[in-house]
Specification:
Elements (H helix, E strand, L loop, with lengths): L1 E3 L6 E6 L2 E6 L10 H16 L5 E6 L3 E3 L4 H10 L6 H14 L1 H6 L4 E5 L2 E3 L1 H8 L2 E5 L3 E3 L13 H9 L1 H10 L3 E2 H7 L4 E3 L4 H13 L3 H14 L4 H16 L2 H11 L10
Parallel strand pairs: 3-4, 4-6, 5-7, 6-8, 7-9, 8-11
Antiparallel strand pairs: 1-2, 2-3, 9-10
């Protein structure tokens, strides 16, 4: 296990057994976002994307929450003090850049991403969770869009990810009404892949993450691109992309070794080549 310096205590990072872990670390504030956390998150995700040692990424929160989204108390202070010299256009550009470098990158990067939820995922915190490829929830965790309760429309791609996962009608209900979605309901809706007891969350997360980290990373990269394209592409585009990626994977060392292992009734060992 290797700890990674992020420049702030608000985000912890480590690499263990091919898995890059990002831990939002403001437990007293339910891991609400801060400026320091946001800056470190964007930087760390970009580094993990390019680090060949990292073959899967886990995003989680310290303590009993995943992430409460924006810091509402901080918002109150900013509303009282104003934006200072920052123009609204600059603020929009800054948020767009950060959203693409965090939620957008977790969704699009060529590595599997997992959100592990020990507790509440609210607002932008929920958007982070939904941007990942897979989600694992503690039975005590819940999800809520929360934006309407503070007069916000929503950010970090939540409307996109939610609509893709549950359909437009249900997404509208969850955004407009901001009801809490329990772990069991989230499982029924397809918002999470697994629900486990709180004491089993870390082990289940480790098990799935390390399975992915030891898998055929080249194939996973192309699978993810295929699946993302299928969300909005025409069928012929998807067929053509699948053909290109499938044939390319057939030339990899991982494929050739896996076929030989299958013939010999052995467990394949993937090298990401």
């Amino acid at each position: 296990m290797r700890k990674i310096e992020t420049g702030t205590e608000h985000l912890q990072a480590k690499i263990d057994n091919g898995v890059g872990y990002l831990i939002m670390n403001r437990p007293d504030a339910r891991n609400a976002m801060s400026g320091e956390m946001n800056e470190a998150m964007q930087k760390s995700i970009a580094e993990f994307e390019l680090d060949t040692e990292v073959r899967c990424i886990v995003l989680t929160g310290a303590g009993k929450a995943f992430c409460a989204g924006g810091d509402v108390k901080g918002m109150s202070s900013r509303n009282s003090e104003g934006r200072g010299d920052e123009t609204i256009d600059k603020a929009i550009h800054r948020q767009r850049d950060h959203q693409r470098g965090t939620a957008g990158k977790l969704f699009k990067m060529p590595k599997p991403t997992i959100a592990s939820l020990p507790g509440a995922a609210a607002g932008a915190g929920l958007s982070y969770a939904l941007s990942c490829d897979l989600r694992i929830m503690s039975s005590e965790a819940f999800m809520t869009t929360a934006f309407a309760k503070v007069g916000f429309s929503g950010d970090y791609g939540g409307t996109y990810f939610m609509s893709q996962l549950v359909g437009s009608a249900k997404a509208r209900e969850l955004y407009f009404l901001s009801d809490r979605v329990s772990a069991e309901e989230a499982l029924k809706l397809g918002l999470t892949n697994w629900v486990v007891e709180p004491e089993d969350l870390d082990q289940k997360t480790k098990e799935i993450a390390e399975q992915l980290a030891s898998g055929p990373s080249v194939a996973y990269r192309y699978m993810k691109e295929n699946l993302n394209r299928a969300m909005s592409g025409e069928v012929d585009d998807c067929l053509d992309l699948e053909a290109t990626h499938h044939v390319h994977c057939g030339e990899t060392l991982d494929h050739k070794n896996a076929v030989q292992a299958f013939v010999e009734k052995k467990k394949p060992e993937f090298q990401g080549k």
